[in-house]
Amino acid sequence: MQKIISFLFLFLLMPSLASHDLERAISSEDRDPKNVMRDSERHPYETLTFFEIESNMKVVELSPGGGWYTEILANYIHKPGKLIAAHFDKNSKRAYFQRSRANFEKKVSEKPLFKDIEIVDLSSNLAEQESVDAVLTFRNLHNWLGPQMDLIFANSYKALKPGGLLGVVEHRAKPGTSMEVMKKSGYVTEEHAIEVAQKHGFTLVSKSEINANLKDTANHPRGVWTLPPNLRLKDQDKEKYLEIGESDRMTLLFRKI
């Protein structure tokens, strides 16, 4: 009887333990202090909880950039889970892509926190077929508009297990925004994001306003990069854009049925 009670107690405790692990990963001193400063704008705890990410999952992070979310995920995910970072292609001809990939690889090699991360090319199959629990992308869709987005979503679907999750955070354009404006502004409509995901077999499970920002009009001189943290106009109207804060973002959860 005592064993049954103990088992039930542990079973009930598991969600709270997972929650604690995620909170600990977010508050870890391993994170860059400059990244921590953006937590109030990017809501990592709420976002990863909404995406149903658990510490024992095999997760692919698409185009991790400098590793803002990677720092959190690497601290949170542990064996039998695994974190795969799908970065710019290693043999890309674009100098920026080469620098970004090299900087990320350097960071991974130098930080013990990142020692178990596997790095793959963004245009690759990402992982073995039906081997991944979740694929995540944060503020990247605008960079992929067109055939690349189709390729990445198709490969994500193949890599995911049946029932696997696709979590998307992206700068949100106003409904009806043209493709030309989306490419120029860095904002993407929810309709387009959902349409492409569904075209490749995903089912929309839920939307969240975790990363919404009603102050953002999505209409700025230098697109989304006018806002922090980029502040492309530098000191011009800086206080105005700091007051707006980071972009209004959609947060979408899809499932491979």
From TrEMBL:
Swiss-Prot/TrEMBL keywords: Methyltransferase, Signal, Transferase
Domain of life the protein comes from: Bacteria
Keyword Transit peptide recorded: no
Domain Methyltransferase type: 61-166
GO BP terms, alphabetized: methylation
Signal peptide: 1-20
Molecular function, one GO term: S-adenosylmethionine-dependent methyltransferase activity
Protein's recorded name: Methyltransferase domain-containing protein
Natural source organism: SAR86 cluster bacterium
